[in-house]
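Figure 3 (text version): structure tokens given as input.
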């Protein structure tokens, strides 16, 4: 094997929680550090550390991505009431992903990791579908309240001149709930341009879907911004590239996507993108087979797995039981970040290593070695179910052969 590949600029490394934290360490030990002189600026975003620092460490990690340009993140817990008790939290801390995305104001692009021997559940799908998720605002930065008794809830806008506009949300005659959410033109504009550019780079059609027939101001603003930017800046470029952009309602988009062969970029508002990316990932095989990259308008990149912390497997791991957790999305988060770091720093060897790591990972599954979640999905005749560590070592053996 040749000498380890040297890095010039650190990656921002954000560790996480539960089973994915265990896998994170195993991937570094087996698939990266033997080949790369890994240089990172490390942030522990595990729930205990976030609680200890009043979640300031999450903000520090996001600011570090602004400094270095590229980050890679492990899956983290977004606490609910049960987690509050389990971890004895000071507060029900917000989603680290939501915090980081709000600071970077980017767009999340999620694409299935396709393997020839695993066919999509949706029969017409022949090509990967990339879900572009707006990563700012909506319910992820909402303000919520519990209404305990009869009350009037209003939306109040007070401008810089002191003029006040009020709109009735609802007259409650008893208990209920309310929330307020927002977005800003600047972020919608960045979202639109990121989607137009990403689809243009891939030479794929761009679809955008919202619900402007119901949300005649909020969602309609998204529709208008996309249309204005397309007409002014991208219409001719798309025509030259032989691709198209169109807008449709979110329910119509779902019906069309299911009947399509895939191969498009599907732009969605924040919550829609959260839901639809999981739908697409599952329909292509597994939530653990999905790449996810956050791209900011300034050119900052954050790579992560598009799934959770695999809590059930973690509890089994703590009991000393063997687990077969699919590590593909986490591997591809590392490979994506290393490739981008190599691209920005002009290190071709690092980019090539990332390609080989992905190739070795896919080859392992194609040759019939996989975690339990893929066994029933794979059409390979001779296949073997392995535990997480065995899966990583199988990838390593193939990667070793490629690196000689």
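Below: residues designed for each position.
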């Amino acid at each position: 094997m040749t000498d380890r590949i040297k890095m010039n600029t650190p990656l921002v490394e954000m560790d996480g929680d539960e089973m994915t934290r265990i896998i994170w360490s195993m991937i570094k030990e087996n698939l990266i550090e033997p080949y790369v002189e890994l240089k990172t600026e490390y942030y522990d975003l595990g729930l205990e550390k976030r609680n200890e620092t009043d979640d300031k460490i999450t903000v520090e990690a996001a600011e570090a991505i602004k400094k270095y340009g590229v980050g890679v993140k492990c899956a983290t817990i977004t606490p609910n009431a049960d987690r509050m008790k389990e971890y004895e939290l000071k507060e029900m801390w917000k989603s680290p992903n939501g915090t980081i995305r709000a600071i970077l104001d980017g767009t999340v692009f999620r694409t299935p990791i396709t393997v020839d021997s695993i066919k999509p559940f949706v029969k017409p799908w022949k090509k990967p579908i990339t879900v572009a998720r707006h990563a700012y605002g909506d319910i992820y930065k909402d303000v919520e309240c519990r209404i305990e008794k009869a009350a009037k809830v209003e939306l109040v806008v007070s401008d810089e001149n002191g003029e006040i506009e009020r709109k009735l949300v609802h007259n409650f005659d008893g208990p209920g709930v309310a929330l307020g959410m927002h977005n800003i033109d600047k972020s919608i504009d960045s979202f639109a341009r990121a989607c137009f550019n990403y689809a243009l780079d891939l030479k794929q059609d761009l679809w955008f879907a919202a619900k402007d027939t119901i949300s005649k101001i909020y969602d309609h603003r998204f529709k208008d911004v996309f249309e204005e930017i397309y007409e002014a800046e991208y219409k001719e470029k798309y025509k030259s590239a032989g691709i198209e952009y169109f807008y449709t309602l979110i329910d119509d988009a779902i019906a069309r996507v299911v009947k399509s062969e895939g191969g498009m970029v599907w732009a969605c508002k924040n919550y829609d993108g959260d839901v639809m990316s999981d739908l697409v990932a599952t329909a292509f095989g597994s939530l653990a087979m999905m790449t996810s990259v956050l791209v900011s308008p300034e050119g900052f990149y954050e790579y992560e797995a598009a799934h959770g912390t695999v809590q059930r497997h973690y509890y089994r791991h703590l009991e000393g039981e063997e687990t077969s957790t699919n590590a593909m999305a986490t591997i591809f988060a590392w490979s994506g970040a290393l490739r981008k770091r190599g691209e920005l720093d002009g290190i071709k060897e690092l980019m090539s290593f990332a390609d080989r790591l992905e190739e070795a990972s896919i080859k392992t599954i194609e040759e019939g070695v996989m975690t339990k979640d893929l066994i029933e999905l794979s059409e390979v005749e001779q296949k073997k179910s392995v535990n997480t560590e065995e899966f990583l070592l199988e990838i390593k053996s193939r990667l070793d052969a490629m690196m000689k």
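The longest helix spans residues 218-241.
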